[in-house]
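Hi there, hope your week has been kind to you so far. Do you reckon you could talk me through the fold, stretch by stretch? I've dropped the whole record in just underneath, so have a look:
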Amino acid sequence: TALAETVRISLPPNQTITGFDFSDGADDSIRTDRNDLIFEATDLPYTGGNVTIVGTGQFGNLDSFGTLVNVDDVDLMRVEVTEGTTISVDVDLDFDPALSGLVRFFDASGAPLDGAVFINAANDTVEYTATRAGAVYIGITGQGNDTYDIRVPGTGSPGQIDGYSATISIEESIAIFADGNLVELGGLETV
């Protein structure tokens, strides 16, 4: 019906969370904790609904002597989603915003989901739609570090080092059913 189509194309805007720090502690000179492996992943502040998380991060850095360190750095995030949820990630580098960091998705066991990822060139995002409910891991790293395993220490390769800004949009599947004058909206918190 016309109402169902209007709702489908006029969804409310996502709640936005700003100022999120995607980096691990090893990316600054004071902290030494990492978030490169599955058991160290940083939980995203997501409890459901449609949310956009905006923040900054750093992969790799220089030590106090100017030596490159953490050249295999991965900023790994964890989020619990429902089946059909789409996660879109946009990463822009500080040094050259025309370049993007490398984004990878992993399932709850840490297996890569490389074959299920969609590169959306129109939006400059990397997207994954969950095929089942549960944890999804999102890895952000520099180009060149594209074969790391989040389950095994030491599997990263030297990658690009830079600061970055990132936007992660999490959108639940929306099902709109119309039957006569009855419209059911599955997956929406508010309309």
Summary: The first helix runs from residue 2 to 9. The radius of gyration is 18 Å. Residues 47 and 93 are 28 Å apart (CA to CA). The helical segments are 2-9.
